[in-house]
Amino acid sequence: MSTAIQPMGVERYEPAFPEVAPVLDAPVRVVTLLEDRAQVTRGGTVRVRAGQNRIVVRGVAPVMQDVSLRAETVSGKARVVDVRVRRSLRIRTVDKPEAARVLEERLEALQREREQVLEDQTRARARFERIQRMLVLGASEIPEDAGWGMGAAAQWQDTFDALFRKARQLRESALKATFTAERLAEEIAAVMRQRQALDRVEQQVVGWLEVDVLAEAEGEVEVRIHYVVPNALWRPLHSARLLEGKRILFASSAAVWQDTGEDWKEAELRFSTARSSLGIEPPLLQADLLTVKKKSETVVVQARQVQVQKAGLGSAPATGGAAPATPPSVDLPGVDDGGETRNLKAPGRNTIVSDGRPHIIPLFTFETEAESSLVAFPELETHVFLRAVARNTSPNPVLAGPVELLQENGFVGWTQTLFVAPQEKFELSFGPEESVRIQRGAKQESELNPVSKWNEATMRLTLYLSNLSGTARTVAVTERLPVSEIEHVKVELDREKTSGTPVLDDNGFCTWKVELPANGHTRLHLVFKVSTAPGVQSA
Predict the structure, then answer these.
(1) Any bridge partners for residue 240, and if so which?
(2) 40-49, 95-104, 114-123 — which is least confidently predicted?
(3) Helices (H), 265-384
(4) Domain edges within the chain
(5) Strands 503-504, 509-516: parallel, antiparallel or unpaired by DSSP?
(6) CA 65 to CA 260: how far, in whole Å?
(7) How far apart are CA 212 and CA 210, in angstroms?
């Protein structure tokens, strides 16, 4: 929505727009975008006379926050006494008599044509009905004429052929007239909408600034204006391209939306993670009621999912370094800055139009070496994925956000990354490797130990891996074991029945490094036991 003042077609302003004050050409110079607002800086030079001067700045955002508005003089022997924002309702009627006349003539012509088509349709239907009655009467008289020995078969056939042919022609004419009338009705409705649009009074809220400047002498004064506007925000957006499986070209950008009512043309854009909207009110205190409860003789346990955080390498290993999927919602997540306010500057100058649409602004790029490998997490997905581990060699951090994945042959998909500090490692998954297939089977057996009276549940997992390519592959396969936090539940890995020598960490992740020959296959077994003490119940 442009806020430029257009004298042509303007009927009036409510309240009136000042016409006598000098106008300061102060374009947008710097814009600092926050999570949910933007700080705008304008600047320009104007010639003033000695004494009190009132200067008008046109085309500002009418949604600006009044309390954030401030102005100052940068050069010249003058100072700003006061600055305020004014808003007005511009009632504007577009004067297009020639266009209106053309539309009215077109509308009359279409209406006359439609009326003629409807008349032709009515006549065709009436003639068709008459011929239909003639055919019915003629068909009823044939037996009577044949009984009296009147008429001939050839004569009857010629008569009925002519009537049927005429009936088909009239029916086609009526159907064609129906379609033509519908088309003309649509055209008439469209022309009527265009004509009504010319008569519609357009209303638009516009804003301008009034700056009072007190000058010691006549001369030029440079004025700088600062204010905050809502309806503007930004979010990080990244792109990662894997080159030959050995290097990653990473590009970080900012997606900008703004619908403030003013266009930012050739402005310097800065992006900040500061949260100026966060409140500082202390929490409300509530009374805590303490009660005494008899200790239960029954132990209740609960199985739950816990996300394992790894700095620089995303979340749980099962996601290949990507953040968990964002739940479907219309709200954009905040910007994760790692707990420290970050300020990024876009190179050069950029133009952001006030249209509410996303604009992609490049921030920085870096190219780094990558270690690519094949990984599999069969519990979550029965696919083998290509994972690349790289290091952030840029002096800027990689903020949490979506990442577009690319390879040399084109687009792969989308993932997400968490906050990655400079010189910190991170990993990305570049999609499944179709040449390696994996299948997973699970079987559980439960029994009561006659000696200890503990309930023992044995879980047997079987993994089938096959390599369909003519090249040997190495796959890191990760399965998960439960981790007990209390002594009443024990989890034990049966290493004798488990294939190979997997690596088991403290979080319960069991990992094999499987060598798959060309066109080969293998099988993995994982056996573990979960024992619960007598009296333990599951929640």
Answers:
(1) 250, 405
(2) 95-104
(3) none
(4) 10-93+202-229, 97-199, 232-275+301-371+390-424, 436-538
(5) antiparallel
(6) 11
(7) 7
- Look-up: residue for tokens 């981790």? 483
Among the four given CATH numbers 2.60.120, 3.30.390, 3.50.40, 2.60.40, the one describing domain 436-538: 2.60.40
Q: What is the DSSP string of 410-466?
A: EEEEEEEE--B-TT-EEEEEEEE-TTEEEEEEEEEEEEE-TTT--EEEEEEEEEEEE
Residue 15: asked if its preceding bond is cis (omega within 30°), the reply is: yes
Main-chain dihedrals φ then ψ at residue 275, nearest 5 degrees: -115, 80
pLDDT tens sequence across 335-376: 877 778 889 999 999 999 998 899 999 999 999 999 999 999
C-alpha span between 449 and 451 (Å, rounded): 6
3-class DSSP state of 282: coil
Q: Enter the tokens of residue 108.
A: 């009359």
User: Strand pairing partners for 209?
Assistant: 57, 85
Q: Give the separation between CA 275 and CA 334, rounded to whole angstroms.
A: 9
Residue 95 has pLDDT above 70, yes or no: no
pLDDT at 1 over 80: no
Three-state DSSP state, 20 = coil
Q: Is the CB of residue 538 less than 8 Å from the CB of residue 302?
A: yes
Query: What letters, b where the CB count within 10 A reaches 16 and e where it falls short, cover 33-72?
Result: bbbebbbbbbbbebebeeeebebbbbbbbbbbeeeebebe
Q: Using one digit for the tens of pLDDT, what is the confidence trace for 257-275?
A: 999 999 999 999 999 998 7
237 vs 360: CA distance, rounded Å? 8
Distance separating alpha carbons of residues 181 and 263, to the nearest angstrom: 46
The tokens 């996300």 sit on which residue? 307
User: In the block, which residue shows the tokens 């687009």?
Assistant: 411
Contacts 24+ apart (CB under 8 A), 105-112: 106/191, 107/188, 107/191, 107/192, 107/195, 110/184, 110/187, 110/188, 110/191, 111/188
Q: Is residue 194 over pLDDT 80?
A: yes
The Cα 211–Cα 73 span in angstroms is: 11
In this structure, what token pair is assigned to residue 154? 């050839």
The tokens of 217 are what?
């002498």
